[in-house]
Amino acid sequence: MRSSNTEIHILGTLISEGTQMVDVVDILTPDMFESVATSSIYAAMQKMFDENKGIDLVTLSERVAGNKAVEAKGGTAWLASMAANYTPGLLREYALLLKERYVQKKALEYAREVQRAVVDGLGVDKIVSIVNKGADAVNNMLIVAGATRSVKSIIPEVLERLEERMFIAQKGGMLSQAGRYASYTAFLGNKHS
User: Fold this and answer.
1) How far apart, in Å, are the Cα atoms of 24 and each of 74, 122, 128, 145, 182?
2) How many Å separate Cα 156 from the centre of its chain?
3) Is pLDDT above 50 for 41?
4) Model pTM?
5) How many DSSP H helices and E strands does the chain contain?
6) In terms of pLDDT, which residue wins out, 146 or 172?
7) pLDDT at 160
8) Deepest in the core among 53, 101, 158, 189, taking most CB within 10 A?
9) Mean pLDDT confidence for 126-131
């Protein structure tokens, strides 16, 4: 999987200025990174931070030496190229952006789980249980108050998308964006009449 520019800028800044780890350690976890290589690098940095070790190109290179995912990307040379993406003033903002994308991805995964439960004809109690499990999991990811969207704002949006997808599936196919909106709006109008 390809690493995003956001990830590269976060890691590059931390390689160049390891003391800034304190600004993101409460926001990010390794699983928020898209590729195994970038996740491994951040996990190594997090462990070094927890051990009160300095983080720079040399110490990080030693820590991830032998990691197949990092070596496949170019090892130390790849780490050095990331260090060129040094954006200290935007580090926390980039971390919040990466976290928001991760939370949205997880919310959609839970929405798909709810959709499967509905399609499979599971009872309302089971569906509500899945919704609650997803809401709790997403809520637990929202550590920095006000910096990411609240669960209350995400759930209606996810449920609306889920309802739209179910409508399309019931009608037997895919619609264009404009057609989808018109059909969905008409469906809602008939449904609530």
Assistant:
1) 25, 41, 34, 14, 43
2) 19
3) yes
4) 0.67
5) 9, 0
6) 172
7) 75
8) 158
9) 86
